[in-house]
Amino acid sequence: MNYSQRVDAFSKLGDIFRSLNSESPVLQQAYLYNNWFTIDMQLKSFGAWADLLTQEKLNEWTASYVLSEPTNPKKVAIIMAGNIPLVGFHDLLSVLISGNIALVKPSSDDSVLIKWVIAQLLEINTSFSKYIQMVEDHSLKVFDAVIATGSNNSNRYFEYYFRNKPSLLRRTRNSVAVLSGNETAEDLDKLADDVFLYFGMGCRNVSKLLVPKGYNLEPMFLAFERYKDIINHNKYANNYTYHKALFLMNQDPHLDNGFLIVKQDDALASPLSVLMFQIFESEADIHSFLELHKDHIQCTVGKLTDSMIPFGKSQDPGLSDYADGVDTLQFLKELEA
């Protein structure tokens, strides 16, 4: 199975993704298995991947790596997260597009979709059967390298368990938005997507706002109103009710619009249904904050610098927007040496 055949297979997979709709059985099954994976959220994820899985974009992504056919494909264990739909797919794509063998350990929260995707690949090209193996923790014994994503606690386990293997280990990260007070209504409307898509459970979801002194949060609250129905999701509502009660009992100052709690806090991470904000006196203070926390920030949304992600685009990464800023394809290429 050569590179062009792999690109063709993933391009056809993109066509399958584009054909999905709210009645598709796999989406219904995944929602029943994990209620966080609503049909709309799944369609958002599949749609984003469908836009990327074209021959043109795949070839553009891999062009600078000069991928050769590995004479000795490496067995790469992929331990996936499951906080949002298909969150582990990029690692699977990277391992397979580079010609290596994927030993896939899906998250228990996202096993339905990942197993379905693998089944589609096998149907598109049966040669993938030589390059994809499903594994459990206890059966992960013979492998050459590992890509693992998990919490900070699980990462300590990963560091010890995989200490003798080439590894790409990812920890908990959060994303921030920098607001100046000059945002348009459209900017704030798009920021709502950065905050609420996938219920805010992704590492690319904005969980922290950096705002100037005297910033008026009212326009942002108005823009967020289009997500007000999120409170009708039982699990989200449980989180909202719990944190609201906690803040009230502790007499912690906070703002509440009925489906989101906004609290001034120095913490980078925020609990589900809560958005933290921090006040800064100057632009230099913002840069200092971002530099101080760079190892814990996945992405920064805003207009302060050209390197920041535009409002509404935090959950639309490209193929080269690697998690934790670590180049997965380069890691895989170095295994050939």
Q: Can you put this structure into words, describing what you see?
A:
With about 325 residues, the chain is an alpha/beta fold. The chain folds into two domains: about 5-170, Aldehyde Dehydrogenase, Chain A, domain 1; about 175-300, Aldehyde Dehydrogenase, Chain A, domain 2 (3-Layer(aba) Sandwich). The protein contains twelve helices and eleven strands. The protein has helices at about 5-20, 25-35, 40-50, 55-60, 90-95, 110-125, 150-160, 185-195, 220-225, 235-250, 285-290, 330-335; strands at about 75-80, 100-105, 130-135, 145-150, 165-170, 175-180, 205-210, 255, 260-265, 275-280, 295-300. The strands form two sheets. The protein has a six-stranded mixed beta sheet, sandwiched between helices. The chain has a five-stranded parallel beta sheet with strand order 3-2-1-4-5, with helices on both faces. Strand 2, helix 6 and strand 3 form a beta-alpha-beta unit. The longest helix is centred in the first third of the chain and has 17 residues, at about 5-20. The radius of gyration is 21 Å and the shape is globular. The chain starts with a helix and ends with a helix.
Instruction: Round the Cα radius of gyration to an integer and report it.
Output: 21 Å
Mean pLDDT, all residues: 95
**Computed structural class:** alpha/beta
Overall body shape: globular
| CATH architecture descriptor text of the largest domain | 3-Layer(aba) Sandwich
> CATH superfamily membership of the largest domain, which one?
Aldehyde Dehydrogenase, Chain A, domain 1
Instruction: List segments where confidence is low: pLDDT < 50 over at least 5 consecutive residues.
Output: none
Largest sheet descriptor = 6 strands, mixed
Query: Helix-strand pattern, N to C?
Result: HHHHEHEHEEHEEHEHHEEEHEH
Overall strand count: 11
CATH domain fold name of the largest domain:
Aldehyde Dehydrogenase, Chain A, domain 1
Distance between the termini: 21 Å
